[in-house]
UniProtKB/TrEMBL annotation:
A biological-process GO annotation: methylation
Name used for this protein in its record: Methyltransferase
Keyword annotations from UniProtKB, A to Z: Methyltransferase, S-adenosyl-L-methionine, Transferase
SUPFAM superfamilies: S-adenosyl-L-methionine-dependent methyltransferases (SSF53335)
Record's keyword annotation contains Methyltransferase: yes
GO function term, MF aspect, one: S-adenosylmethionine-dependent methyltransferase activity
InterPro entries, A to Z: Cation-dep_OMT (IPR050362), SAM-dependent_MTases_sf (IPR029063), SAM_O-MeTrfase (IPR002935)
UniProt keyword Nucleotide-binding present: no
Length: 202
């Protein structure tokens, strides 16, 4: 296991959230990737954060722990049952109910209702089919200097394989390339977990 993964430690609350995700067959971010989320939220003194893909609350806990004490995490997921678990996990982790705004629905339906330029950080952990739409929305939702983080950009190790032409890999390649070539973003790929694309809005 890479040192970045063993360096990041998880307490019993995170371990429980992770095991619940495993039982449901849900992928969740690795401890190393979680520690990057926490770091970037803390570095940006994040008060308003959007998470696309609640799961059982693993990434949400990492984000909340990096955010300001008065910060609010808006987390979106289509699966109401997963969010019910996450809500309980957030409370067990010591976060008051007012620290989270849990919205059930498709991200592409919810994001247009969120306010322009109101957010410090946006974490996209959605289906790859929604990557392009989510990153476009992030450009509108983030304040200047705000951070976009997209999970899964290694495409399961296929990102550098020219022979990999499946839809998911092609979509990820297009998203990564578009952000790199855009004058709106200052990006970098962080190799923790499934690969994180981080980009600061100019």
């Amino acid at each position: 296991m890479p040192f970045a993964e063993t360096y990041a430690t998880e307490d019993p609350i995170l371990q429980t959230a992770r095991s619940l995700a495993h039982e449901l067959g849900l992928p969740c971010i690795s401890p190393g990737a979680g520690s990057v989320l926490c770091l970037l939220a803390a570095a940006g003194n994040a008060k308003a954060v959007v998470e696309i893909g609640t799961g059982t609350g693993v990434s949400g806990i990492w984000l909340l722990r990096g955010m300001r004490p008065d910060g609010v995490l808006t987390t979106i997921d289509v699966e109401h049952e997963h969010q019910r678990i996450a809500r309980r996990v957030f409370v067990e982790a010591g976060f008051a109910p007012g620290r989270t705004r849990i919205i059930s629905g498709r991200s592409l339906d919810v994001l247009p209702r969120l306010a322009d330029g109101a957010y410090d950080l946006i974490f996209v952990d959605a289906d790859t089919t929604e990557f392009a739409a989510c990153t476009e929305a992030a450009l509108r939702l983030l304040r200047p200097g705000g951070v976009l983080i997209v999970n899964g950009v290694h495409a399961g190790g296929r990102i550098n394989d020219p022979a990999a032409r499946d839809v998911d890999t092609l979509t990820i390649r297009e998203t990564v390339k578009a952000i790199r070539e855009s004058e709106d973003w200052t990006p970098a790929v962080i190799s923790s977990g499934a690969g994180l694309l981080a980009a600061v809005k100019r």
